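Worked example

This section walks through a single chain of length 49. The input is the sequence exactly as stored; nothing has been trimmed or padded.
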Amino acid sequence: MINFEEELKKFHPSLEVEDAEEAIYNQDLTDMADLLVKMIQESGEKTDA
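Given that input, the structure is written out below as tokens.
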């Protein structure tokens, strides 16, 4: 039978998962809202000039 208390003591999170999580959260991704805001700002600059 599995002794869950002993197995929990042995548990260590995978380093690959932690590294991937850090890389994902630290990456600055542009989404559609960012693109639309940029397009609106650029079109406003063109009409002002």
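What to look for: The longest helix spans residues 32-48.
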